[in-house]
Amino acid sequence: MKIKPLYDRVLVKRKEPKEEIKGGIIIPDTAKEKPLEAEVIAVGDGRVNEDGKKFPLTVKVGDTVLIGKYAGTEIKIDDEEYLIMREDEILAIVEK
């Protein structure tokens, strides 16, 4: 299934953190914090102001971004979990 976000919305997928076991303690999935890093999967056409002028988005498909813990709306597509959020909810772009 292909998704195209509208306006200034962005579709992202959280990156799973590396599994680390310290001292033989395994933390269950329900107790783990949600990862704050995500990959941009799809972007909208841009924000439209009151005059009807369109401004392109700063992020692009494939970017790794930092997002807030409770940012966006969680959706499930083909058994995969994604977030749809506005571009202004993205905190930063991770540059490699």
Automatic annotation (TrEMBL):
SMART domains tied to this protein: Cpn10
Function according to Swiss-Prot or TrEMBL: Together with the chaperonin GroEL, plays an essential role in assisting protein folding. The GroEL-GroES system forms a nano-cage that allows encapsulation of the non-native substrate proteins and provides a physical environment optimized to promote and accelerate protein folding. GroES binds to the apical surface of the GroEL ring, thereby capping the opening of the GroEL channel.
Organism: Thermotomaculum hydrothermale
Pfam families listed in its UniProt record: Cpn10
Family per similarity comment: Belongs to the GroES chaperonin family.
Record note on quaternary structure: Heptamer of 7 subunits arranged in a ring. Interacts with the chaperonin GroEL.
CDD domains, per database record: cpn10 (cd00320)
Main location: cytoplasm
Stated name of the protein: Co-chaperonin GroES
Example of a GO cellular component annotation carried by this entry: cytoplasm
